[in-house]
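Saturday, quiet lab. Running sequence design on the structure tokens for the scaffold JK sent over.
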């Protein structure tokens, strides 16, 4: 079901708009913000609301304070940085519910911006506690969710609050950032231009079973890399040496291989193997899909890179999630970076990179700006690829 977006809101002058953002920014030991990309990413939504004369009430989580007030996890520094970025004052309230919040919002003028304190100072936030959601919702006429990275969790600020505002007749809409995620990830899954090629890597097959099952019904080709490939190869009877393998998932891997029969489901046909999965080990390219005893797989090999690149080059829609090897170690990063370059190099395709490690890898390879879209939510984008409806999206108003 298509959801209302911020562009569908016509007149919101003077309206109190509660905006769920993702300001879970990395902080150094002195509380300094080391990367403000998540703050900057919300500017289009905030500018739009300021221009339209809304009263903007921002709420977010930061870190894992586990339901307790903890100055280390305060959003105060974010208010300051946001004010610099927006070039206008941002008031900070050191609570997210209660009298202080009510009073501050009561004196807001059109175009004013207020940031509330960390939602997770209350355990009720993650429990989606109805009275807490009521308190959050009480000062809002409208709700905007621009925090895709939190949309897979049914928390008070992502789900409960939207249900309450909707019940009162207020619209609950996707912000520009959320809308982009739904457009690209949603578009790839519901109506991809074909061929639709998915590249899946990373450490564990167990994290991606549901993704593979869903993509087997949607994609034209699935290319597997990273350590998760070894569980599949072992299930097929190949040697895996001392590679990272999930032995308790071999039956599951066999069952997925069964479901993949007749489909283009590619596993590595060679590897870079090393004597240890750490930097500086002795390395060798394997002769075929087996890894020798005493060695472990650390990256896909040159033949696999060439095969995968051919599939990627012919795609019209590409989704990539998970590295092809231990890309954090430069000697083992070639497969991941080559795949990143192939994805970015296919200018005929819509190329989408799932959040987390593949986004990091694309950035390290210097191609993150050349792909169509990099998702901001690791866990959320995986659940999306599993075909699940995210609670934070489901709670928004239907078109
Ligand atoms: P994930 O969080 O499941 O996407 O996994 C990402 C992690 O998988 C990265 O930290 C990689 O270093 C790791 N990884 C990828 N390939 C391998 C491999 N061949 N052996 C061990 N770890 C790997």
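Result came back. Writing it out in full:
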């Amino acid at each position: 079901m298509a959801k209302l977006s911020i562009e569908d809101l016509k007149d919101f002058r003077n309206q109190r708009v509660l905006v769920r953002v993702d300001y879970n920014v990395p902080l150094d030991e002195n509380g300094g913000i080391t990367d403000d990309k998540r703050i900057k990413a919300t500017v289009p939504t905030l500018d739009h609301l300021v221009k339209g004369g809304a009263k903007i009430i921002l709420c977010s989580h930061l870190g894992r304070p586990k339901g307790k007030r903890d100055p280390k996890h305060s959003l105060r520094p974010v208010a300051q940085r946001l004010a610099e970025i927006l070039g206008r004052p941002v008031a900070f309230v050191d609570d997210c519910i209660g009298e202080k919040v009510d009073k501050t919002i009561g004196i807001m003028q059109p175009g004013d911006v207020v940031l509330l304190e960390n939602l997770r100072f209350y355990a009720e936030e993650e429990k989606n506690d109805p009275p807490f959601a009521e308190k959050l919702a009480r000062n809002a006429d409208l709700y905007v969710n621009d925090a895709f990275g939190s949309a897979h969790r049914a928390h008070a600020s992502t789900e409960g609050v939207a249900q309450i505002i909707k019940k009162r007749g207020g619209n609950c809409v996707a912000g520009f950032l959320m809308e982009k995620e739904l457009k690209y990830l949603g578009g790839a899954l519901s109506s991809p231009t074909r061929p639709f090629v998915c590249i899946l890597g990373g450490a564990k097959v167990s994290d991606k079973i549901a993704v593979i099952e869903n993509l087997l019904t949607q994609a034209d080709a699935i290319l597997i890399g990273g350590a998760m490939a070894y569980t599949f190869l072992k299930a097929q009877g190949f040697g895996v040496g001392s590679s990272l393998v999930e032995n308790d998932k071999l039956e599951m891997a066999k069952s997925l291989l069964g479901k993949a029969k007749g489909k283009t489901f590619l596993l590595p046909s060679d590897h870079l193997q090393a004597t240890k999965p750490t930097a500086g080990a002795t390395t060798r390219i394997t002769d075929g899909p087996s890894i020798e005893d005493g060695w472990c797989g650390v990256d896909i090999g040159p033949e696999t890179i060439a095969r995968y690149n051919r599939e990627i080059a012919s795609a019209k829609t590409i989704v990539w999630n998970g590295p092809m090897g231990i890309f954090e170690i430069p000697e083992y990063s070639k497969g991941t970076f080559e795949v990143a370059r192939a994805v970015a190099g296919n200018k005929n395709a819509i190329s989408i990179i799932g959040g987390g490690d593949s986004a990091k890898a694309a950035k390290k390879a210097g191609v993150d700006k050349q792909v169509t879209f990099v998702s901001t939510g690791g866990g959320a984008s995986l659940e999306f690829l599993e075909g699940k409806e995210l609670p934070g999206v489901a709670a928004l108003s239907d078109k």
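Notes for JK: The two ends are 8 Å apart (CA to CA). The chain has 16 helices and 15 strands. Ask whether to fix the surface positions before the next round.
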